[in-house]
Amino acid sequence: MKQSHYFNPTLRELPADAEVISHQLLLRAGYMRQNAAGIYSYLPLGKRVLRKIEDVIREELDSAGAQELLMPAIQPAELWQETGRWEVYGPELMRLKDRHDRPFALGATHEELITSLVRDELNSYKQMPVILYQIQTKYRDERRPRFGLLRGREFIMKDAYSFHSSQEQLDDAYRLMHETYSKIFTRLGLDFRPVVADSGAMGGKDTEEFMALSKVGEDTIAYSDSSDYAANIEMTEVHVQYEKSGEPEKELEKTNSVAEVGAEKIIKFSAYRSGEERIIVLVRGDHEINEVKVKHLLEVEMLEEIHELEGLNPVGVSGVKVVADNAVKSVVNGICRLDKELVYHNVNPERDIPVDTYTDIRFIKEGDPSPDGKGTIKFAEGIEVGQVFKLGTKYSEAMGANYLDENGKAQPIIMGCYGIGVSRVMASVAEQMHDDNGLLWPKTLAPFQVHLIAVNVKDEAQNKLGEELYEKLKSEKYDVLYDDRKERAGVKFKDSDLIGIPLRVVIGKKAGDGIVEVKVRKTGETFEVDASELESTLKRLWDNLD
């Protein structure tokens, strides 16, 4: 492709609203342009990278026996109403009506739609297992789109669904998809870790996220410094033994001031509502409430925090469920502050607060013991690029997707679900692979293999050699971007660094002698080679690239 005719508008200035490096570089290097908050157009360079990501995904999924299909982005509301998610999914679901006033949703995910497809087709245990997948645009009305492709309102996703007649089949498929995802992300060049995760609104019991390690990640990974244990911080269990001091209990006091005490002496609380039930949750002052753990404990999908406490005072409360973190039980003569004017001193949970349940409901902290008993916990930030779920029968039962087992008895189809954020992968690679000058694409994803640059196309020798090498490399099946623009050398080199193509061939002042310079973008290594040896040099360098 000749760059003089290639649609690749680069930017010299840093985009004002681009907070993270992937957003900045993908805009500056001409891979994409923003159309609205969280909505982007992919320009030719960006589309080439996306296609290469999709190619890797397809190759590995097809090799694993999955079958590709394509479902509509516009989904009838009644499918979501069958599972109850029309009401509970929330404002992120983009809803619309057609000219006949019938309600639809733009697909945020496709569990309902794929279940509606298979319930009329997979009727016998003999037809399973089956794994189906698609690569398609998804829509979520994010409250605060940010970080470019990392949190958008429109994004490209691969979603796969598996269908089974037994739990053993699902377990096998889950392991297979886990292995397949590891192969995919390894081939894409990502530094990643699979971590235990929360299933959220998707439902199901077992799930793991694949996290690309990055300082701008919105998720925190808790990992052991002595083993391969890793989990999303929301799901990391706390295994700490708390010792209660031998301090004698003092008489409960009400005051309007807080004494100077350590955080381990303070009892913090929040109040929640789940349906009609109200719940008070307690943690120690040096800990934070983990709402995901609270939801799992209560077996609910939604919790509403009660900001106006409605008279909910944990000291002596009655008729309200009280749940406390394990650490609270060790507090002796603690402090519990209700508001600016009311503070309880010498609070002893067993005596003064009617706790119904002590359990693990706090976030783990760095330095806590690892849940697997090996080492201590450290934190890292990560970007979720994929997730695998065991959905079970959540959707099949709600939507009547049944099959006949060996005895001719109707059973709900057992399901799994497996997602990869395709456009998010592109941004995650950009976050991990760049330098001060621009992008550093791995060879599996680079939009072109070689960036051929004629420093001065007005020079007859350079122009002639440039055209010859361009045609020769194309004939040798190299994917080449040829910068034949009438631009200054500095502009061409800056654009080349920004774009991040792995190998650069520069045709300069020694063109008349048939000498060119080859540069490896990632390492900065340069070689002067005779044009006759260019192809063999490129092959050697390409084969040794990551």
Automatic annotation (TrEMBL):
<dbReference type="GO" id="GO:0005829">
    <property type="term" value="C:cytosol"/>
</dbReference>
<dbReference type="InterPro" id="IPR033730">
    <property type="entry name" value="ProRS_core_prok"/>
</dbReference>
<keyword id="KW-0963">Cytoplasm</keyword>
<dbReference type="GO" id="GO:0140096">
    <property type="term" value="F:catalytic activity, acting on a protein"/>
</dbReference>
<dbReference type="InterPro" id="IPR002314">
    <property type="entry name" value="aa-tRNA-synt_IIb"/>
</dbReference>
<dbReference type="InterPro" id="IPR004500">
    <property type="entry name" value="Pro-tRNA-synth_IIa_bac-type"/>
</dbReference>
<keyword id="KW-0030">Aminoacyl-tRNA synthetase</keyword>
<dbReference type="InterPro" id="IPR050062">
    <property type="entry name" value="Pro-tRNA_synthetase"/>
</dbReference>
<dbReference type="InterPro" id="IPR023717">
    <property type="entry name" value="Pro-tRNA-Synthase_IIa_type1"/>
</dbReference>
<protein>
    <recommendedName>
        <fullName>Proline--tRNA ligase</fullName>
        <ecNumber>6.1.1.15</ecNumber>
    </recommendedName>
</protein>
<dbReference type="InterPro" id="IPR045864">
    <property type="entry name" value="aa-tRNA-synth_II/BPL/LPL"/>
</dbReference>
<keyword id="KW-0436">Ligase</keyword>
<comment type="subunit">
    <text>Homodimer.</text>
</comment>
<dbReference type="GO" id="GO:0004827">
    <property type="term" value="F:proline-tRNA ligase activity"/>
</dbReference>
<dbReference type="Pfam" id="PF00587">
    <property type="entry name" value="tRNA-synt_2b"/>
</dbReference>
<comment type="similarity">
    <text>Belongs to the class-II aminoacyl-tRNA synthetase family. ProS type 1 subfamily.</text>
</comment>
<dbReference type="InterPro" id="IPR006195">
    <property type="entry name" value="aa-tRNA-synth_II"/>
</dbReference>
<dbReference type="GO" id="GO:0002161">
    <property type="term" value="F:aminoacyl-tRNA deacylase activity"/>
</dbReference>
<comment type="function">
    <text>Catalyzes the attachment of proline to tRNA(Pro) in a two-step reaction: proline is first activated by ATP to form Pro-AMP and then transferred to the acceptor end of tRNA(Pro). As ProRS can inadvertently accommodate and process non-cognate amino acids such as alanine and cysteine, to avoid such errors it has two additional distinct editing activities against alanine. One activity is designated as 'pretransfer' editing and involves the tRNA(Pro)-independent hydrolysis of activated Ala-AMP.</text>
</comment>
<dbReference type="InterPro" id="IPR036621">
    <property type="entry name" value="Anticodon-bd_dom_sf"/>
</dbReference>
<dbReference type="GO" id="GO:0006433">
    <property type="term" value="P:prolyl-tRNA aminoacylation"/>
</dbReference>
<dbReference type="GO" id="GO:0005524">
    <property type="term" value="F:ATP binding"/>
</dbReference>
<keyword id="KW-0648">Protein biosynthesis</keyword>
<dbReference type="Pfam" id="PF03129">
    <property type="entry name" value="HGTP_anticodon"/>
</dbReference>
<dbReference type="GO" id="GO:0016740">
    <property type="term" value="F:transferase activity"/>
</dbReference>
<dbReference type="InterPro" id="IPR004154">
    <property type="entry name" value="Anticodon-bd"/>
</dbReference>
<dbReference type="InterPro" id="IPR044140">
    <property type="entry name" value="ProRS_anticodon_short"/>
</dbReference>
<dbReference type="InterPro" id="IPR036754">
    <property type="entry name" value="YbaK/aa-tRNA-synt-asso_dom_sf"/>
</dbReference>
<keyword id="KW-0547">Nucleotide-binding</keyword>
<dbReference type="InterPro" id="IPR002316">
    <property type="entry name" value="Pro-tRNA-ligase_IIa"/>
</dbReference>
<feature type="domain" description="Aminoacyl-transfer RNA synthetases class-II family profile">
    <location>
        <begin position="38"/>
        <end position="442"/>
    </location>
</feature>
<keyword id="KW-0067">ATP-binding</keyword>
